[in-house]
User: Fold these one by one.
Assistant:
Number 1:
Amino acid sequence: MDSIPHRDHTEAGGSRPAGQDCAPWSIAIFARNEMASLPRCLEALAAATAGAQAEVSLLLNGSTDGSEQAAPRLMREARLRGSVWSIPHADKSNAINQYLHRLRPEAGLHVFVDAYAAVKPDALRRLAARLVAEPLAMAAAAVPSSGRSAAALRADMLEYPGLHGSLFALRGSFVERLAASGLRLPLGLYRGDGLLGSFVMHDLDSASSPWRPPHIAVEPEASWTLQPLRPWSPADIRRHLRRLVQQGRGRLESGAIRHTIYPGQGRCGGFGALPERADSMILDWLAAVPEARPRLARDPFAALALRRIRRAAPPETSALEPRLVAAVPE
């Protein structure tokens, strides 16, 4: 199966008044070569959605580990209803764009989950309840509970609200407005959840709408767990090194985004000035602000990320397109 159904979102769950229940739920799972974690992720979601009206969209992007073949069976075994999609290009930001603008079902609550995370049994209900209780909030953020930096990140999120990419939820009405606005994450953006959080905080308009913390409600009792990295595992060592380089790239992205959208930082064109590709945004920023170029001695991972950016070729359009692998149940 390879056709993408056209969905009518004019009466989506997001049209409900903000104070009403956020059902039904749509859960978007993002995975790249997460075959080892996928069963655990799906089993946790099955427990977290028990008794709820929920539809799962599993988006595999750039996966080459056999998860495309196994995912439909794993979803059936977990008794989850939804669909499995495959995108050739490995890019979570593109996968998020595809979900928001093409694949999303009608829902009052859209939950975003990384496939390496196992949500806690009450996490989704706590996120939904928080949005019901906070009518000004357009997003509900979960907090980490495992990992060396979890405690510090948790405290930081409670003081400075934001979205963590492993688990968060958007109100349906906000998703409908976001899709209608045409806003997209730049392709290749590592910190897509951070930019989505900025979309929420600025109510989709960074040029005229002030930053409003009440737009994101951080729920300290909603969380997930991770399988810890094994220092003796070559695969986990490679994963950790990739993460360090990606974090270096994220530092470049933060400077480039501020330069692009905020007054006094550059073009100050708001979110509408975001380019199609994150790589071009970073290179344009460094051309305009050459002193921001990372130095190998001071930030080796950002310097390595920049080297990769300069060598990268834009993806083929066809590689960005989602293909329906299976509808579950079939």
Number 2:
Amino acid sequence: MSQAFSHRVLPYDRADDLLDGALPFLREGIEGGDRVLAVTTLAMHMLLRDKLGADAAGVEFFDSDRWYAHPARHLADTLALAETAAWQKRRLRVLGEPAWARRGPAERSEWQRIEAITNAAFADTGAALLCAYSRTLPAGVVAASRQTHPETTRGRATLPNPGYQDPWLYNARLDSGPLPPAPDDAFDLPIDVPDLYWIRVYVTDFARRTPLPEDDLQRLLVAVTEVVTNALRHGRPPIALRLWLEPGELVCEVTDRGHWTERTGFGLIPPKPAGGAGRFGLWAVRLLCSLVQIRTGRDGTTVRLRLQVPGVPAVPPINLPVNSV
């Protein structure tokens, strides 16, 4: 792929500002034979189609809410499109408007993490990504976009972002702060022996007293098995599993006293076919869960898995027996 990868932010105040930067970007791709995608709102789709006229036939339109539904799956799917286009001697070109509305602080951080890691994951694909950010978004979201995108687009002009940060350093900074402590009423299961069967039974008993769908329960069990196996193989005792509910979420946490020294994103980038099994495991866990939070240091390692459960109250379902396994 002769073209260099580019990842730019397009801040805008009004729709005209977005069009001033987006239209030249899209037209360049149409004329160059790229695979061109516009991932925005329905209202912006209509404006873009009107301005592009007949050229709109060369653009594939997608809805932002669906495209940006899950961080790891979004990264995997878009990366697959970029690699396929590169194999076809074409370039993937995406105008994207990330869906920030209704996301809480933890979700926003995870999507900012994805924006940063995109610069490492797509480096060899030759793709061109232009991310539109409305200035009506929270100030922290707009400011972070200048740290996660090497360049800013204004109209036809492109300027380097002096605040841009190396993606791995950016991710390390996100993970430098502690997670909120588990609640006092969390169900706590000390893991003294490697009996994965009873661990899965324990998680199943808890989850089935919540509205968690059966498919999501199966995903949770696979993710928990992977994380507990990693703790047993590579961590240090004591190892514990905790379960609790938060508004709209089921949370499962695995802790041990080991300290991970791996500093390449803890499974944030899809592994290559020849990649190591450990990296694949963490990547799979990210695909299976709504959100994965990892903290590691001298005091030990915490892996916190979150699955969305709409309507779930922040109270325990019932008392479960607390026995070591």
Number 3:
Amino acid sequence: MKKISLAGQIFIGLLFGIIVGGIFYGNPEVASYLQPIGDTFLRLIKMIVIPIVVASIIVAVAGVGDIKQLGKIGGKTILYFEIITTIAIIVGIASANIFQPGAGVNMNQLETTDINSYVDTAESQESKTLVDKLVQIVPTNPIAAIAEGDMLAIIFFSLMFGLGIAAIGEKGKPVLAFFQGTADAMFYITNLIMKLAPFGVFALIGVTVSKFGLASLIPLGKLVLTVYGTMIFFVFAVLGIVSKMAGFGIFKLIKLLKDELILAFSTASSEAVLPKIMEKMEKAGCPKHITSFVIPTGYSFNLDGSTLYQALAAIFIAQMYGIDMSIADQISLMLVLMVTSKGIAGVPGVSFVVLLATLGTVGLPLEGLAFIAGIDRILDMGRTAVNVVGNSLAAIVISKWEGVFKPKQDKSVMEQAS
């Protein structure tokens, strides 16, 4: 009998979770049983993400050892991220204007959800200027940055550490060997944890459906359809064109990442797949020093699905309240989102925090978010999957741009993409 692939196992877990959640909809006891299983799986993933990022970047940078080359890669990466996320914002705004998902919504029929837990975080983010955010990339205490999960500060410190190891030559080899061993051990642990993914997915989706029920989607069905339709268009049209230019078709990329996409979608957690997409893109032909820098950095600067959703949701709220946003207002919204959406990936409920910070700045009512908070988890699943595709493609684009993309004939990987 043929063994079921990991993607198949995760999909089965997803289906069973939806069925169990639907059967026990409104029963809080189900969530109390399933939530610890889902939380344990996510905690296992989060446990290994930072050690992998730190070790991988240090090993990759020490291997390159050229600060000019790294600076050039960094500049190209940030430029690419800015272009793609700006296009995502424009696509989100355009879709909201074309399909008008907020027009005619009866707010009296919608349930509201408490969003106070996000307000304080949003206010603290609003008070930071772009210069403040840039300054905070440099950690005063790298151990504290690691403890807090501040990804940009961790990346900066790891880059500096890697350059230091390269600069001291022979003396740095034992340190480099230690981090190489750490990376290898963490990837081994990742493969063990991934065997638990079907159970984690079953629990997490079961909790979601049992709490909110599929019926909760009906009053905001037009928003859900517009968000998902727009994200599908963005992946296959925008990212599809980019991938074709890079010589690695979008369908080939999605097939290569099918396990990770199902997992990211089910858990609504990009962190759940970070180690595996780094590993897969390296095996697909991207050099280690590029995957180790581009993909973790993309988690703060290249959240295509999230920025698209934030733009669309902001216009949706304006439409729901009957607020007519002029072209100038929408350009202002785009410019604000270009700033507020950067560098806060480690903040819980990041899309809500960004939206809260953005709505206040462009004069839209914050209370509108309370109407869509209940279905945010369903929307989060889609935007997380789009983020994964965008960051994986970014590694290929930068590798091609640098002229170092070398497809490898690794059977285990290339068979999945063929």
